[in-house]
Amino acid sequence: MTAGSSKDAVKAALTTQALETPSWAYGNSGTRFKVFAQPGVPRTPQEKLDDAARVHAHTGVAPTVALHIPWDRVDDYGALADHAAKRGLRLGTINANVFQDDDYRLGSVTNPDPAVRRKAVAHLLECVDIMDATGSKDLKLWFSDGTNYPGQDDLRDRQDRLSEALRTVYDRLGDDQRMLLEYKLFEPAFYATDVPDWGTAYAHCLKLGPKAQVVVDTGHHAPGTNIEFIVATLLREGRLGGFDFNSRFYADDDLMVGAADPFQLFRIMYEVVRGGGLATGASGAPGVAFMLDQCHNIETKIPAIIRSVMNVQEATAKALLVDAEALSDAQRRGDVLAANGALMDAYNTDVRPLLAEVREESGLAPDPLRAYERSGWQEQIVEDRVGGVQAGWGA
Amino acid sequence: MTAGSSKDAVKAALTTQALETPSWAYGNSGTRFKVFAQPGVPRTPQEKLDDAARVHAHTGVAPTVALHIPWDRVDDYGALADHAAKRGLRLGTINANVFQDDDYRLGSVTNPDPAVRRKAVAHLLECVDIMDATGSKDLKLWFSDGTNYPGQDDLRDRQDRLSEALRTVYDRLGDDQRMLLEYKLFEPAFYATDVPDWGTAYAHCLKLGPKAQVVVDTGHHAPGTNIEFIVATLLREGRLGGFDFNSRFYADDDLMVGAADPFQLFRIMYEVVRGGGLATGASGAPGVAFMLDQCHNIETKIPAIIRSVMNVQEATAKALLVDAEALSDAQRRGDVLAANGALMDAYNTDVRPLLAEVREESGLAPDPLRAYERSGWQEQIVEDRVGGVQAGWGA
Amino acid sequence: MTAGSSKDAVKAALTTQALETPSWAYGNSGTRFKVFAQPGVPRTPQEKLDDAARVHAHTGVAPTVALHIPWDRVDDYGALADHAAKRGLRLGTINANVFQDDDYRLGSVTNPDPAVRRKAVAHLLECVDIMDATGSKDLKLWFSDGTNYPGQDDLRDRQDRLSEALRTVYDRLGDDQRMLLEYKLFEPAFYATDVPDWGTAYAHCLKLGPKAQVVVDTGHHAPGTNIEFIVATLLREGRLGGFDFNSRFYADDDLMVGAADPFQLFRIMYEVVRGGGLATGASGAPGVAFMLDQCHNIETKIPAIIRSVMNVQEATAKALLVDAEALSDAQRRGDVLAANGALMDAYNTDVRPLLAEVREESGLAPDPLRAYERSGWQEQIVEDRVGGVQAGWGA
Amino acid sequence: MTAGSSKDAVKAALTTQALETPSWAYGNSGTRFKVFAQPGVPRTPQEKLDDAARVHAHTGVAPTVALHIPWDRVDDYGALADHAAKRGLRLGTINANVFQDDDYRLGSVTNPDPAVRRKAVAHLLECVDIMDATGSKDLKLWFSDGTNYPGQDDLRDRQDRLSEALRTVYDRLGDDQRMLLEYKLFEPAFYATDVPDWGTAYAHCLKLGPKAQVVVDTGHHAPGTNIEFIVATLLREGRLGGFDFNSRFYADDDLMVGAADPFQLFRIMYEVVRGGGLATGASGAPGVAFMLDQCHNIETKIPAIIRSVMNVQEATAKALLVDAEALSDAQRRGDVLAANGALMDAYNTDVRPLLAEVREESGLAPDPLRAYERSGWQEQIVEDRVGGVQAGWGA
User: Fold this and answer.
1) Closest Cα partner for C153 from B322, B264, B339, B3?
2) For a FRET experiment, which of A256, B177, D250, D349 has its CA 20 to 30 Å from that of C253?
C-alpha cells in the first residue's frame, strides 16, 4: 500500500486478504491444570473442516485450514481435500508434531539418542508426503525440543543435530514447497529451547536455502520484545514466511489475536504493509502466510475464531489507512509528535463500518458474529455431535 | 541465628530443619503439551507416602507430606495417617483443589454463578473436615480463579465473592488450624488472576484474622520481582505462613528448587533466618511452613525431590553461616562492598562437607542421593508398580 | 457512571474531568546517557506555570500544576500561587525530592545514618510547610531509596526507618491534607527498592491512617503486572490516592500516557469509572488525583503534554461509553465473548468527534494541538527564553 | 578445556586469562536521577590508566584498558600508550560515542538527516584513526539509536542507513582490526532500538565480513533471555567478538559482574570454555574479548573493579573444573539429574583457595582486595586528586 491509498484501494486490499485457521483451534484445548470440554466440538478432521467452512462463509477471508499431524491423520488425504473443496476451503499448512510421543521426553530432532532423532525425522518426511497428497505448500516446524536443567544436554551438540535434521527435510521439499521454521522462547522447555528466537531460526534458514523461512508466533517472545521490529527485519531480509497469530498478556497464552494488545497487532500489520508483505500473502505466490494459532480454552470456539479473523481485518484496515505521505513527511522533518500522530490517526479510526461495507459488497452479512449466531450452526453441532471422542491436543 | 553463630549452632539449626514434600510430586506431571509417564510412579496415596518415606529416610529433614484433595482422597484418613506414622511420617498441609471440575471453567469461589461458588466452598469446608481427621494444621488455598479476557467478569465483584468465601472457611477453622493463602501472577488465568500478588493475599488475610497467613510460591511472581523483599516484609508483618519452593527461569516452571537461581534461594533463606522464620518453622509451633511444590516432568521423581531437599539445606546452611556481626558492621558504616562481601563470603562457601557431617552425626549416609541409589528402591518400584493407574494431576 | 449513560452524561463527566500537569515536564529531561536541551524551555517556576496555562487554555481540563521541591523552590509561594491564579491555574500536589543530594547516596529516610534520615525528614516537613503556603492538599512522596547489592543494607531495618519517617510526616499533616505514597519496582535502586510495590505502600498507609493513600505510577511495575487490577483493588480498599500517568514499553520509560498501550490506559480508566474514582476526582473532594508524570526527552514539551491530556480524555470517554448493562448481563451469563465484546465495542469507538463537541460546547477549539500550533506560543518562547538556565531535573 | 582437566591445566588456563577494564568505570557514573561524585576519582585519561594499573597489579589478569572517545580524547595517543606501557598496561578496545551530541537527538548513523549521519560516520572513522595510533585491534560500536514512539521514524529505512554506515567503517578497517557490534534491547530508546538483539547484530556482521563480530553485553537482554545459549550459538557461528560484562536484576543496571546472578555467569563461562572461546581470548590471536562495562554508582570504584575481575575469575575457574567426561556421559545416557549434578558439582565448589594459589604462584598477594586496601592507593588518590573536573560520562 502506498501513500494516499484511496478508500477503494484499501477495500480491494481487504477483500483479497487471506487468513488460515488451524484445525486444532476447533477442538478442545486447555492448560496443564484442566482441559474444559465444550459441547459440539468436532470429533474428526472432517468436522473441523465443517466448522472452518462456517468461519469462511461468514468472513470471506479464511479459505484455508492448517492441519496438524497426527491429530488430523486420515487414510485418504485426497478425500479430505475434496471434503474441504466442497465447502469452499483448501487444505493449508501441514504442521508436524514431534512432541507428544513418550520417546520425545528429552527432545525429538535434537534428542541425544540417534534412534529417537531418526524417528522424528521420519515423521517430518511423512509430513512432506502428506503435503504432496494434499497439495499443501508449507511445512510448519515447531520443535518443543530443549532442556529443563543446566547441564542436561550440550547446547551446541543439539544445534548440530537440529541442523542435520533440517537439512534432511529441506532436501526432500518439492520445488514449490517451503519449510516454515518457528521459534519460541520457552514452554515446554524451561531452561533452554533449541530454537528460542528469530535469530536462531534465521541463521538456520540462511544455511538451508531460500525455501526455508521464519514464522513469527506473536506469543513466543520474551517480555518487552518489539515484535514489529522483527517483522520489519525479516521482511527486509526476505525471510518472513508467515505468522502464527494469537495474543498474550504473560507467556504463550494463546488468546484471541488482538485481544491483549490491539495496538501491537496494528503496529505489526503496519510493518507488514510497509514491507510489502500483504501483497504477497494476498496473491497466490508464496508470500507471508497469515495463520491463526490459538487456544479457546473457555470461550466458544467458532465465534472466537470469527472474532479473531475480524480482529486481524480491523488491524489490517487501520494499517492500510495510514497516510503514508503525511507519515513519511513528518519522519523526514524529524517531527516526532506529527509522525506518531499520523500513525495514531489511523489507529484511532473506527474501521468497523468500512469492513461492514467490504463484506456487504462481497455479498456477506456486515456482522459475521451476528450472522453466525443467527445461522443456528452452534445449536446444530451441540445437538448432533454427541458421542465419539472430541478432538483436542493429542487426539 | 545471631551474629557469630558457632559451627555447632549452625549444625543444630540444620538438624531441626523440617521440610514438607508434596504427595503430587511423586506422581506424573507435565505441561499442556504432554505428560511423560515414568515407570514406578505411585498409584495410590499410600504409595506416595512410601516414596516420601524414602526421602525422609535419606535426608532426615522431610518428616511431613502435604496432601491434595481430591487427588489423595481416601475413605479412612485415620488409616492413612497410620500408614504415614509407621513410616516415620506425619500428614501435613491439606491442599484444596477447586480447579479441575468442569463447573470451574469460569472460576470457583469467584464464579459469577452462586451455585458454583457454593460447591467450591463446600469443598473447602470438606478439606477442613479432612484436617480434623488427619490432624493437619494448615489448609493451603490456591485459586486458579481469574479471567482470560478484559471484560469477561467484574474484577471487583470477584474480590467481594472471594472475600465472602474466605470468611466462611476461616470461621470454620479450629483454634490450632491455619489458612495459608497463596498468590500467583498468572496461569491458568491469562488476563487477571483473583489473587495475583502478595498484596492481595495480605489484604485478605488482614481482614480475616491472625490464623490467615500468606504463602510464597517462589515461581509465582512477575519477572524481576525481589522475592526476598516480600519474605522480609511478610515476616515483619507477622504474615508469612510458608513457602511453596520450586524454581523457574521463565514462568511457573516448577523446576527443582535452587536449580535455576541458587543465589536467589540463598537470599530468601537469609531473610528467613534474619527475620526469625527458621526458628519458628523448626519448632512445633505454627511458624513458617517450608514446603516443596514442584513438577519433575522429565527427571526421576524421588531423587529429584531428595536433590531439592538438599538444595534447601545448602541454602539454609549458607544463610546460617553469614557473619551477622561483620555484615551489620559494614552496613552501619555504609561500606557497600564490605557488606555485600560479607554476604557473598557465606554464599561462596562450599557447605556440602558441613551437611555431610550433620547427616553422619544423625546416623544418616553423608550423600543422600548416593544412598538412595544404592538402596534399590527405584528398581523395586519399577518392578512392583505395574498395572493400575499412575498418580498424576487429576488422579 | 452507571449503565446506559446517556451521551449527555458522558459529556458532563468529561467536562468536569481534571488533570494535573507536572511543572518538571515543561523543563528538560533525559536519560543517563544524555539530556537534549530544547529551545524555549522555561527557566523559572513562573515560566513553567505560563506553559501549563497554555495546556489548560487549549484543553480546559488541566487546571492544576504539581510542584517539585526544590526544583520549584521560590521565596514567596503566595506570589507563585497568585501567578498561577492570574493564568487560571491552581498550584497542586507538592512533590518532595530526597534523591538529589550527595548525602542520599545510600538512601534518604531509610539511610543507615540517622543524620541523613533527619535531614530527609526535615525536607519532607518543609514540603508540608510549603503546602500550607500554597494551599496544596496533597504531598506526594516517592523515595528512590533502596540498595544496589544484596547485603548492602538490612531490608527490614530500612522498613522500620521508613515507617518512622512516614509517621513523623503524617502527624504533621493538616486536616485537609493527604500523603500520597508512590511505589516503584526499581531505578535508581537496582537490587531492592524500599517501596517496590503497591502492597508495601498499602501496608504503610494502613498503619498511618486515612490520610495516607497510594499513588499508582503506570510505569512503575514489573513486566506483566495487571495495573487495572491494582486500581480496582485500591479503590475497593479506599486507598487509591491518585495516578502518575505515563507509558512504557520496557521500564519506567516515562513516555506520553497512552502512547505505548492505549488499550491498557482504557482498561485502567474503565476500572476508575467502575470503582467510582472518576466522580471523586472530578469533584473538589479529596479523591483520585489524576496527574501526569512524564519525560519528553525528544519531543516538543507543550504539545506533548497537550497530547497526553487528550489521550487520557479519550481513554476516559471510551470508559464512560461502556454499556454497563450489556456488560454486566453478559458477565452474569458467563458469556465470555459477549462480555469481552461489550468492552471492546467502547474501546473501538472513535471518540475524537465526541471530545471535539465537548470542547466546542465549552468554548474551546475542537483540536487543542492545532489550536496550540496556531497560537504562536511556541515560536514566542523560543524567541523570548534566551539566556538563563533552562529548567530540568536538579534545577 | 577437555574432560578431566588436571588442576595444573586449570591453573594454567586461569593464569593466561586476560580481562579488559573500561576507562570510564574509574570515573563517576549514575542514573538519570543523580550522579554521586566520589572522592579520588580520576580527572584525566592518564589518571584512569593509573587506577587501571592498580587493578592489574593486584589481579594479574587485567592488562588492557578500553578507551571511550571522546571521553578519553588526548592530543597524543602514542604518549598515552606509553603512559600505559610504563604501568604494565596496553590500550585496548576503542569505544565510539555517537550519543552525547545534541545532533544525535533522533539518532546518529540512523538519523533521518543525512548531515547528522555523515557527522556520526566521521566520528567512527576518526576512531579507526585512533586505533591506528594506539595499536588497538578492536572498534566497539554501540548505538543508542532508536525511536521512542511508534511512527517516529521508519524502522526499515533506519536499517538501511545503519547498513550503509557500517559498511563504510568496515571498509576502513585494517587487516588486523575488527569491528565489534553491540546490541541492546532498550535504553535510551524506549520504543524501537536499531540494534536490539543478537540476531540483528549477527545479520549485519554476516553481510559485512569476517572482521565484524558480535559483542554480548550481559545486561542488554529482555527478561528471561538465556544468554549462554546466545554465547554458544555465536561461538558455533564463529561470530562471538567479546563480552561487555556486568550484571543486572532488572534492566541495564550495570552492577558488578556476578553480583546479581553468579550462577548465570558460571553458565556463560561454561559455554565459553565448551565452545573454545577461552583459548582464543587467552592467546594473542583475535578471539573473544573479555571486557567489563559497569557503573559503580555508589560503591568505591577501584575495589569494585577488582571484585568484578575476581568474580569473572571464579566463574571461569568453576567452568574449567566441570568434569567434562562425567557430564558428557550423563548427557548421552539421558540422565537429567546426573548431568545437571555434574555441572552443579563444579559450581558448588569453593574456588577461592585455588585462585589464591594461582595468584601466589604468580607472585601476587592471594587476596587482591585486601592487598589493594593495604596499598594505601585509595587514601593517596583521595588526597591528591583535588580540584579539576572529575571524569564521568560526558567528560
Assistant:
1) B339
2) A256
